[in-house]
Amino acid sequence: MTRTLVQHHQLPSDTATDPALPVPPEAARRARDWAEIQERMLVPLYEAVYERLEVRTGTRVLGLGCGSGLALLLATARGARVTGVEADGDRLALARERLLAEDGRDGAGHRRNDPGCETLLPADRMADAAGEPGRPGYDLITAFQPIGSVAGDAKGLDPALRTAIPLAGRGIPVVLAGWGPPERCATDAVLRVAGRLADRLRKGTKRPAYRDDLEDVAARAGLKPDGSGRVACPFGYADQESAVRGLLSTGVFDGAIRATDRRQVEKEIGEALHPHLRRDGTVWMPNVFRYLIARTP
User: Fold this and answer.
1) Confidence label for 102 from pLDDT (cuts 50, 70 and 90)
2) d(Cα 16, Cα 1) in Å, to the nearest integer?
């Protein structure tokens, strides 16, 4: 199951251009690009954290910013019971599609076997993740969406953590993730396109990851750091077009698109990708991501 989800990510090249096919709304198309192209890039991070924290049968995981559910799906493969929270409605819909199918539910949503997925919620309903009164709290809270690529991208974590932490017991691990040092991330040069173009509006500016970014978030949430790690997460794409679509799906370039237009942003991303094109047409960019384990008070 995991191998299929991780490796078989490429979309048919003609889905975006065939006039006989319906064209999905931009937001839905970008969510699909995230799910089928970009999200898999962080699988080494997910697996490293689950291995280190011994996620296994019975572990209750709360995933903040769960995207389209791949990290949660990998947790259920280890036997965990998962709850996901996601602000993007299109990504959340894809997560439901993935996880409910894995649970063995029918089209009406009725369970056919013991599910690993307990619930998936929009961000503004996170308090509902508390579940039934008297039920044990979560054993692990994850916030895998990396911070450190756009100025202010950690601010949204603060309210999410304030709501999530009371849903867990004392001393429960909370995992935060961020970009590694720019000199260890080949994608940094591509991300700088976002900052250069977005400067016209002074919004969404690219900024380097700072050493204490994750510790600062943990401190604001009242968490106590308890270890960290670095994981190699290379970004590999079937071709340049897939790379552009995958990178745009992250949201990092939204400010640049507002400042200019999508076509200009796509052009400049494509130019920035040239040093990473290989002879067979694929794109390969080595990166390092950092994670922090902190404990609830």
Assistant:
1) low
2) 27
